[in-house]
């Protein structure tokens, strides 16, 4: 078994690089490209059904963008929100061992969940977070055509899917009182403590109404609160990426969990349109009776320098190293959470103006050894219809966190 595992791990490391060697020649750092696409396709039951979907407008390749990424064992999961007309499926699965460079996405768990009516299936999945028991928590916005004529056709909903059986275990619509007008429920993080994942909470970020929604699994309870640290910074709301200038006033977005110590653990968080990183103990936000009276327990960690220092997603590995997406710098950064959050303790582990253009989502899996998984998707170009279908625009990338920090300040802090 040990030999088989080592062989499989070697394949995981080598095959992506072999398949897309051209990509990796442009990357500074130990990043491998597992998949890349010029445009996204889907695996239909038959070619005729695919052609019918194109003919009737249900499938339009230019409308599809990969957004969220997760990994469990031998599969990666990719979300494709229905931001424009013509997105036939919104959650898919692919193997971690690539057999082709640009495979069609396989709708997950099956096509039925993407064609269901009356809000019984998936509407528009943004992101996912897998707990260590193999349940994937899926955040469905319930909104379609957000970049065209936004329609809230279903309530934002949290789904729980057993990845061993590919069974949807439960769905939890977020109560109306916690979804405000113009809310953008965009990111999700699961916090599971005990071996059987009974003490489990899910944290959900509202980027446009600057709030955090908490879900407690034991009794399916939700609560919501706001804090002034969830707001964007005005000057960081202006972006320029590869000549494209745009303005986003996105608040609370990136969230990551530190180590569990003495029954508590820190939640690191930031607004996307911001240079500031904050922290709060999760014991504060897991208690709905305490959170509104704990303003001073939300603390500033530090500041990133420059007007292009915005960060989307972040995650912390078992060694306490945070990896984060520098979306305006075509880069992945690192910080050892055992040190102060200052420039001399942060570093860049990967950079590419080809394959790391707008690194959007980032997750760290539960495997041994762990891997970092990222989606890059040129989101601003997609939003403004500037995607060139003759170029590789979308990528699933992997990174070995131990190799990544070698010869960086993040390693030297141990």
Major sheet size, sense and barrel closure: 4 strands, antiparallel
Rg over CA atoms: 20 Å
Described by the principal axes of the CA atoms, the overall outline is globular
* Tally of contiguous helical segments: 8
Q: Point out poorly predicted stretches.
A: 1-19
Gap from first CA to last CA: 32 Å
Mean pLDDT figure: 93
Provide the spatial order of strands within the biggest beta sheet. 1-28-27-26
Q: What this model shows, in words?
A:
- The chain is mainly β and 414 residues long.
- 13% of the residues lie in helices and 36% in strands.
- It is built from 8 helices and 28 strands.
- It has helices at 2-19, 21-24, 47-55, 112-115, 282-285, 379-383, 401-404, 409-412; strands at residues 31-37, 69-72, 75-79, 91-95, 106-107, 125-130, 135-140, 143-144, 151-152, 157-162, 167-173, 185-192, 200-206, 211-216, 221-226, 238-241, 244-247, 252-257, 266-271, 276-281, 299-303, 311-316, 321-326, 331-336, 346-351, 359-364, 372-376, 394-399.
- A 4-stranded antiparallel sheet has the order 1-28-27-26.
- The protein starts with a helix and ends with a helix.
- The model is unreliable at 1-19 (pLDDT under 50).
- Residues 1-22 form the signal peptide.
What is the element layout, followed by pairings?
Elements: H1 2-19, H2 21-24, E1 31-37, H3 47-55, E2 69-72, E3 75-79, E4 91-95, E5 106-107, H4 112-115, E6 125-130, E7 135-140, E8 143-144, E9 151-152, E10 157-162, E11 167-173, E12 185-192, E13 200-206, E14 211-216, E15 221-226, E16 238-241, E17 244-247, E18 252-257, E19 266-271, E20 276-281, H5 282-285, E21 299-303, E22 311-316, E23 321-326, E24 331-336, E25 346-351, E26 359-364, E27 372-376, H6 379-383, E28 394-399, H7 401-404, H8 409-412
Antiparallel strand pairs: 1-28, 2-3, 3-4, 4-5, 6-7, 7-10, 8-9, 10-11, 12-13, 13-14, 14-15, 16-17, 18-19, 19-20, 20-21, 22-23, 23-24, 24-25, 26-27, 27-28
């Amino acid at each position: 078994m040990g030999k088989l595992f080592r062989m499989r791990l070697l394949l995981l490391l080598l095959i992506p690089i072999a398949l897309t060697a051209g990509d990796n020649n442009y990357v500074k750092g130990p990043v491998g490209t597992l998949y890349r696409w010029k445009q996204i396709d889907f695996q239909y039951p038959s070619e005729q059904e695919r052609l019918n979907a194109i003919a009737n407008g249900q499938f339009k390749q230019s409308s599809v963008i990969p957004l969220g990424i997760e990994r469990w064992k031998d599969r990666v999961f990719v979300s494709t929100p229905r931001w424009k007309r013509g997105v036939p499926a919104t959650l898919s699965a692919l193997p971690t061992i690539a057999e082709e460079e640009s495979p069609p996405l396989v709708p997950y768990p099956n096509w039925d969940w993407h064609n269901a009516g009356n809000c019984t299936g998936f509407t528009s999945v943004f992101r996912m977070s897998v707990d260590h028991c193999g349940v994937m928590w899926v955040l469905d916005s319930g909104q379609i055509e957000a970049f065209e004529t936004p329609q809230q056709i279903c309530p934002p909903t949290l789904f729980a899917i057993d990845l061993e059986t590919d069974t949807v275990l439960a769905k939890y619509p977020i109560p109306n009182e916690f979804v405000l007008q113009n809310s953008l429920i965009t990111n999700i993080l699961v916090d599971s403590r005990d071996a059987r994942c009974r003490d489990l909470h899910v944290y959900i970020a509202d980027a446009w109404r600057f709030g955090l929604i908490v879900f407690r699994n034991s009794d399916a309870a939700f609560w919501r609160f706001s804090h002034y640290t969830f707001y964007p910074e005005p000057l960081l709301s202006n972006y320029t990426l590869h000549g494209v200038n745009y303005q986003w006033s996105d608040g609370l977005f990136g969230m990551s969990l530190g180590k569990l110590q003495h029954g508590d653990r820190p939640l690191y968080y930031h607004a996307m349109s911001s240079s500031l990183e904050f922290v709060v103990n999760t014991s504060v936000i897991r208690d709905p009776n305490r959170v509104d009276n704990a303003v001073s327990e939300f603390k500033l960690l530090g500041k990133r320098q420059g007007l292009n220092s915005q960060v989307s997603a972040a995650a912390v590995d078992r060694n306490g190293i945070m990896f984060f997406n520098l979306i305006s710098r075509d880069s992945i950064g690192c910080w050892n959470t055992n040190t102060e959050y200052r420039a001399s303790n942060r570093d860049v582990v990967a950079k590419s103006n080809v394959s790391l253009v707008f690194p959007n989502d980032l997750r760290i899996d539960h495997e041994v050894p762990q891997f970092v998984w990222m989606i890059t998707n040129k989101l601003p170009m997609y939003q403004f219809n500037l995607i060139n279908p003759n170029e590789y625009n979308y990528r699933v990338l992997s990174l070995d966190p131990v190799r990544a920090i070698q010869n960086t300040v993040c390693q030297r802090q141990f």
